[in-house]
Amino acid sequence: MIKAKSMMTKDVITISPSSSILEAAKLATSKSVSSLVVVEKGNPVAVVSESDIIKGVISGKSKIKDIMNKNFLAISPGTSFYDINKNMAEKNIKRFPVVDEGRLVGLITETDILGATRDFTRMHQTVQDIILAIFGIATAFFLLYFSPLKDMLFG
Amino acid sequence: MARVRKIMLADVPTLKKEEKLEEAARLLSKTENGCIVVVEGDTPIGIVTELDIVRHIAKGNLKLKEPLSKIMASPVVFMTPNIKLDEALKMIDTKRFRKYPVVENNKLIGLVTKNDVVHAISDNMKLHRAIQNIVLILFVAFELFIFLLYPPLINYLGA
Asked: Is the confidence metric ipTM above 0.90 for this complex?
Protein backbone atom coordinates (compact mmCIF):
# COMPACT_ATOMS: atom_id res chain seq x y z
CA MET A 1 0.00 0.00 0.00
CA ILE A 2 1.29 3.45 -0.87
CA LYS A 3 2.09 5.63 2.15
CA ALA A 4 2.25 9.39 2.59
CA LYS A 5 6.02 9.16 2.84
CA SER A 6 6.44 7.99 -0.74
CA MET A 7 3.90 10.44 -2.22
CA MET A 8 4.89 13.67 -0.51
CA THR A 9 6.90 16.59 -1.84
CA LYS A 10 9.87 16.94 0.49
CA ASP A 11 10.75 20.55 -0.31
CA VAL A 12 7.98 22.29 1.57
CA ILE A 13 8.01 26.04 1.20
CA THR A 14 7.00 27.66 4.47
CA ILE A 15 6.04 31.19 5.39
CA SER A 16 5.22 32.95 8.65
CA PRO A 17 1.83 34.50 9.50
CA SER A 18 3.37 37.95 9.70
CA SER A 19 4.81 37.89 6.15
CA SER A 20 3.17 39.90 3.39
CA ILE A 21 1.04 38.60 0.53
CA LEU A 22 3.60 39.94 -1.93
CA GLU A 23 6.29 37.78 -0.33
CA ALA A 24 3.98 34.77 -0.60
CA ALA A 25 3.37 35.46 -4.31
CA LYS A 26 7.10 35.84 -4.95
CA LEU A 27 7.92 32.69 -3.02
CA ALA A 28 5.23 30.60 -4.73
CA THR A 29 6.28 31.66 -8.23
CA SER A 30 10.05 31.48 -7.68
CA LYS A 31 9.80 28.00 -6.16
CA SER A 32 7.09 26.86 -8.59
CA VAL A 33 4.69 25.63 -5.93
CA SER A 34 0.96 26.18 -5.73
CA SER A 35 0.70 26.02 -1.94
CA LEU A 36 2.72 27.35 0.95
CA VAL A 37 2.54 26.05 4.50
CA VAL A 38 2.19 28.68 7.21
CA VAL A 39 4.30 27.70 10.23
CA GLU A 40 4.52 28.98 13.75
CA LYS A 41 7.40 27.61 15.84
CA GLY A 42 7.87 24.84 13.31
CA ASN A 43 4.25 23.69 13.46
CA PRO A 44 1.95 23.95 10.45
CA VAL A 45 -0.95 26.21 11.40
CA ALA A 46 -2.50 26.93 8.02
CA VAL A 47 -1.96 26.80 4.26
CA VAL A 48 -1.94 29.46 1.56
CA SER A 49 -2.91 28.62 -2.00
CA GLU A 50 -2.82 30.59 -5.23
CA SER A 51 -6.49 31.32 -4.84
CA ASP A 52 -5.99 32.61 -1.26
CA ILE A 53 -3.36 35.03 -2.55
CA ILE A 54 -5.69 36.30 -5.29
CA LYS A 55 -8.62 36.64 -2.90
CA GLY A 56 -6.39 38.56 -0.49
CA VAL A 57 -5.22 40.99 -3.15
CA ILE A 58 -8.68 41.87 -4.43
CA SER A 59 -10.00 42.39 -0.92
CA GLY A 60 -7.10 44.68 -0.07
CA LYS A 61 -5.47 42.49 2.59
CA SER A 62 -1.71 42.54 3.03
CA LYS A 63 -0.62 39.96 5.62
CA ILE A 64 -0.54 36.17 5.43
CA LYS A 65 -2.45 35.85 8.69
CA ASP A 66 -5.44 37.61 7.05
CA ILE A 67 -5.60 35.27 4.07
CA MET A 68 -4.35 31.88 5.29
CA ASN A 69 -6.87 29.06 5.34
CA LYS A 70 -7.31 26.26 7.83
CA ASN A 71 -8.63 23.74 5.34
CA PHE A 72 -5.76 21.29 5.74
CA LEU A 73 -5.06 18.09 7.62
CA ALA A 74 -1.72 17.29 9.21
CA ILE A 75 -0.84 13.63 8.68
CA SER A 76 2.03 11.31 9.58
CA PRO A 77 4.45 9.74 7.06
CA GLY A 78 2.70 6.40 7.61
CA THR A 79 -0.79 7.57 6.61
CA SER A 80 -2.07 5.46 3.71
CA PHE A 81 -2.98 6.66 0.24
CA TYR A 82 -6.47 5.32 0.84
CA ASP A 83 -7.03 7.54 3.91
CA ILE A 84 -5.67 10.62 2.17
CA ASN A 85 -7.85 10.02 -0.87
CA LYS A 86 -10.89 9.52 1.34
CA ASN A 87 -10.30 12.77 3.21
CA MET A 88 -9.89 14.60 -0.06
CA ALA A 89 -13.08 13.20 -1.53
CA GLU A 90 -15.29 13.43 1.56
CA LYS A 91 -14.05 16.54 3.35
CA ASN A 92 -12.74 18.40 0.30
CA ILE A 93 -9.32 18.81 1.92
CA LYS A 94 -6.65 19.39 -0.71
CA ARG A 95 -3.48 19.97 1.31
CA PHE A 96 -1.86 17.57 3.74
CA PRO A 97 1.28 18.71 5.57
CA VAL A 98 3.24 15.64 6.69
CA VAL A 99 4.50 15.91 10.28
CA ASP A 100 6.97 13.48 11.82
CA GLU A 101 7.72 13.78 15.55
CA GLY A 102 6.65 17.40 15.62
CA ARG A 103 8.67 18.29 12.53
CA LEU A 104 7.24 19.32 9.16
CA VAL A 105 8.82 16.89 6.69
CA GLY A 106 6.65 17.14 3.59
CA LEU A 107 3.49 18.27 1.87
CA ILE A 108 0.95 16.35 -0.16
CA THR A 109 -1.19 18.32 -2.60
CA GLU A 110 -3.71 17.35 -5.24
CA THR A 111 -0.89 16.97 -7.76
CA ASP A 112 0.84 14.34 -5.61
CA ILE A 113 -2.44 12.52 -5.04
CA LEU A 114 -3.10 12.58 -8.76
CA GLY A 115 0.32 11.11 -9.49
CA ALA A 116 -0.20 8.37 -6.91
CA THR A 117 -3.66 7.61 -8.32
CA ARG A 118 -2.12 7.09 -11.75
CA ASP A 119 0.68 4.87 -10.43
CA PHE A 120 -1.74 2.90 -8.30
CA THR A 121 -4.21 2.36 -11.15
CA ARG A 122 -1.42 1.25 -13.48
CA MET A 123 0.18 -1.12 -10.95
CA HIS A 124 -3.13 -2.69 -9.96
CA GLN A 125 -4.02 -3.20 -13.59
CA THR A 126 -0.72 -4.89 -14.45
CA VAL A 127 -0.89 -7.27 -11.49
CA GLN A 128 -4.43 -8.25 -12.34
CA ASP A 129 -3.65 -8.72 -16.03
CA ILE A 130 -0.84 -11.13 -15.14
CA ILE A 131 -2.98 -13.19 -12.72
CA LEU A 132 -5.76 -13.32 -15.28
CA ALA A 133 -3.38 -14.45 -18.01
CA ILE A 134 -2.01 -17.28 -15.84
CA PHE A 135 -5.45 -18.58 -14.92
CA GLY A 136 -6.66 -18.11 -18.48
CA ILE A 137 -3.85 -20.22 -19.91
CA ALA A 138 -4.33 -22.90 -17.22
CA THR A 139 -8.06 -23.04 -17.91
CA ALA A 140 -7.53 -23.30 -21.65
CA PHE A 141 -5.06 -26.12 -21.10
CA PHE A 142 -7.49 -28.09 -18.92
CA LEU A 143 -10.35 -27.56 -21.33
CA LEU A 144 -8.30 -29.09 -24.11
CA TYR A 145 -6.86 -31.81 -21.89
CA PHE A 146 -10.22 -33.13 -20.77
CA SER A 147 -11.96 -32.82 -24.10
CA PRO A 148 -11.96 -35.20 -27.07
CA LEU A 149 -9.25 -32.99 -28.54
CA LYS A 150 -6.86 -34.39 -25.96
CA ASP A 151 -5.76 -37.40 -27.99
CA MET A 152 -5.20 -35.33 -31.06
CA LEU A 153 -3.13 -32.72 -29.26
CA PHE A 154 -1.31 -34.64 -26.56
CA GLY A 155 -0.97 -38.03 -28.18
CA MET B 1 -13.77 4.33 -22.88
CA ALA B 2 -15.63 7.52 -22.06
CA ARG B 3 -15.06 10.73 -23.97
CA VAL B 4 -14.17 14.25 -22.95
CA ARG B 5 -17.74 15.45 -23.51
CA LYS B 6 -18.96 13.23 -20.68
CA ILE B 7 -16.66 14.59 -18.00
CA MET B 8 -16.17 18.21 -19.05
CA LEU B 9 -17.48 21.10 -17.03
CA ALA B 10 -20.11 22.86 -19.11
CA ASP B 11 -20.32 26.11 -17.19
CA VAL B 12 -17.02 27.86 -17.94
CA PRO B 13 -16.30 31.36 -16.61
CA THR B 14 -15.43 33.63 -19.54
CA LEU B 15 -14.38 37.25 -20.01
CA LYS B 16 -13.40 39.49 -22.92
CA LYS B 17 -9.76 40.38 -23.46
CA GLU B 18 -10.31 44.08 -22.69
CA GLU B 19 -11.58 43.34 -19.21
CA LYS B 20 -9.34 43.96 -16.21
CA LEU B 21 -7.43 41.34 -14.25
CA GLU B 22 -9.29 42.51 -11.19
CA GLU B 23 -12.50 41.25 -12.77
CA ALA B 24 -10.87 37.89 -13.54
CA ALA B 25 -9.62 37.65 -9.95
CA ARG B 26 -13.09 38.33 -8.62
CA LEU B 27 -14.63 35.73 -10.92
CA LEU B 28 -11.94 33.18 -9.96
CA SER B 29 -12.61 33.65 -6.26
CA LYS B 30 -16.27 32.78 -6.82
CA THR B 31 -15.61 29.57 -8.74
CA GLU B 32 -13.40 26.57 -8.20
CA ASN B 33 -12.11 26.17 -11.73
CA GLY B 34 -8.84 27.99 -11.26
CA CYS B 35 -9.00 29.57 -14.70
CA ILE B 36 -10.87 32.02 -16.90
CA VAL B 37 -11.28 31.48 -20.62
CA VAL B 38 -10.88 34.67 -22.66
CA VAL B 39 -13.38 34.74 -25.52
CA GLU B 40 -14.17 36.75 -28.60
CA GLY B 41 -17.79 36.04 -29.32
CA ASP B 42 -18.00 32.32 -28.63
CA THR B 43 -14.46 31.55 -29.70
CA PRO B 44 -11.79 31.05 -27.01
CA ILE B 45 -8.71 33.16 -27.77
CA GLY B 46 -6.80 32.85 -24.51
CA ILE B 47 -6.72 31.45 -21.01
CA VAL B 48 -5.80 33.06 -17.68
CA THR B 49 -5.05 30.78 -14.73
CA GLU B 50 -4.63 31.52 -11.05
CA LEU B 51 -0.92 30.90 -11.51
CA ASP B 52 -0.73 33.62 -14.20
CA ILE B 53 -2.35 36.11 -11.86
CA VAL B 54 -0.12 35.16 -8.91
CA ARG B 55 2.93 35.59 -11.18
CA HIS B 56 1.65 39.01 -12.11
CA ILE B 57 1.15 39.88 -8.42
CA ALA B 58 4.67 38.66 -7.62
CA LYS B 59 6.04 41.33 -9.95
CA GLY B 60 4.57 43.89 -7.57
CA ASN B 61 1.31 44.58 -9.43
CA LEU B 62 -1.11 44.58 -6.55
CA LYS B 63 -3.79 46.67 -8.23
CA LEU B 64 -4.67 44.32 -11.08
CA LYS B 65 -5.84 47.12 -13.36
CA GLU B 66 -4.26 45.70 -16.53
CA PRO B 67 -6.37 44.09 -19.25
CA LEU B 68 -6.50 40.28 -19.52
CA SER B 69 -4.81 40.44 -22.93
CA LYS B 70 -1.59 41.43 -21.18
CA ILE B 71 -1.07 38.14 -19.36
CA MET B 72 -3.33 35.61 -21.06
CA ALA B 73 -1.80 32.55 -22.65
CA SER B 74 -2.66 32.68 -26.33
CA PRO B 75 -3.32 30.84 -28.59
CA VAL B 76 -5.19 28.31 -26.48
CA VAL B 77 -4.48 24.60 -26.58
CA PHE B 78 -7.95 23.11 -26.67
CA MET B 79 -9.63 19.72 -26.93
CA THR B 80 -12.58 18.56 -28.95
CA PRO B 81 -15.48 16.85 -27.15
CA ASN B 82 -15.16 13.53 -28.95
CA ILE B 83 -11.63 12.52 -28.04
CA LYS B 84 -11.33 9.53 -25.72
CA LEU B 85 -10.07 9.96 -22.17
CA ASP B 86 -6.84 8.02 -22.67
CA GLU B 87 -6.03 10.14 -25.73
CA ALA B 88 -6.83 13.23 -23.68
CA LEU B 89 -4.40 12.07 -21.00
CA LYS B 90 -1.67 11.52 -23.61
CA MET B 91 -2.23 15.03 -24.88
CA ILE B 92 -2.11 16.42 -21.33
CA ASP B 93 1.19 14.64 -20.71
CA THR B 94 2.78 16.13 -23.80
CA LYS B 95 1.37 19.65 -23.49
CA ARG B 96 1.78 19.83 -19.72
CA PHE B 97 -1.10 22.23 -19.10
CA ARG B 98 -3.74 21.54 -16.48
CA LYS B 99 -6.83 23.08 -18.04
CA TYR B 100 -8.16 22.74 -21.55
CA PRO B 101 -11.14 24.52 -23.07
CA VAL B 102 -13.36 22.14 -25.03
CA VAL B 103 -14.22 23.53 -28.45
CA GLU B 104 -16.75 22.36 -31.01
CA ASN B 105 -17.24 24.20 -34.33
CA ASN B 106 -15.14 27.10 -33.05
CA LYS B 107 -17.44 27.49 -30.05
CA LEU B 108 -16.43 27.11 -26.42
CA ILE B 109 -18.63 24.38 -24.91
CA GLY B 110 -16.74 23.29 -21.80
CA LEU B 111 -13.59 22.96 -19.77
CA VAL B 112 -11.68 19.81 -18.91
CA THR B 113 -8.91 19.51 -16.31
CA LYS B 114 -6.09 17.03 -15.81
CA ASN B 115 -7.63 16.20 -12.45
CA ASP B 116 -10.97 15.23 -13.96
CA VAL B 117 -9.36 13.10 -16.67
CA VAL B 118 -7.13 11.13 -14.26
CA HIS B 119 -9.97 10.54 -11.80
CA ALA B 120 -12.41 9.53 -14.54
CA ILE B 121 -9.90 7.01 -15.91
CA SER B 122 -9.29 5.65 -12.42
CA ASP B 123 -13.06 5.22 -11.91
CA ASN B 124 -13.38 3.51 -15.30
CA MET B 125 -10.64 1.15 -14.22
CA LYS B 126 -12.66 0.24 -11.14
CA LEU B 127 -15.43 -1.14 -13.35
CA HIS B 128 -12.85 -2.86 -15.51
CA ARG B 129 -11.30 -4.44 -12.40
CA ALA B 130 -14.69 -5.63 -11.13
CA ILE B 131 -15.32 -7.42 -14.44
CA GLN B 132 -11.85 -8.94 -14.34
CA ASN B 133 -12.48 -10.17 -10.81
CA ILE B 134 -15.64 -11.98 -11.90
CA VAL B 135 -13.82 -13.64 -14.80
CA LEU B 136 -11.07 -14.65 -12.40
CA ILE B 137 -13.56 -16.22 -9.98
CA LEU B 138 -15.09 -18.23 -12.86
CA PHE B 139 -11.64 -19.49 -13.86
CA VAL B 140 -10.81 -20.50 -10.30
CA ALA B 141 -14.17 -22.26 -9.85
CA PHE B 142 -13.64 -24.15 -13.09
CA GLU B 143 -10.17 -25.27 -12.07
CA LEU B 144 -11.37 -26.38 -8.64
CA PHE B 145 -13.96 -28.48 -10.39
CA ILE B 146 -11.38 -30.06 -12.68
CA PHE B 147 -8.94 -30.83 -9.87
CA LEU B 148 -11.20 -31.86 -7.03
CA LEU B 149 -14.55 -32.96 -8.36
CA TYR B 150 -13.95 -34.27 -11.82
CA PRO B 151 -11.73 -37.33 -11.06
CA PRO B 152 -14.03 -38.78 -8.34
CA LEU B 153 -17.04 -38.15 -10.54
CA ILE B 154 -15.47 -40.05 -13.43
CA ASN B 155 -14.51 -42.90 -11.10
CA TYR B 156 -18.00 -43.05 -9.70
CA LEU B 157 -19.66 -43.08 -13.08
CA GLY B 158 -17.15 -45.55 -14.46
CA ALA B 159 -17.74 -47.95 -11.58
From this structure: no
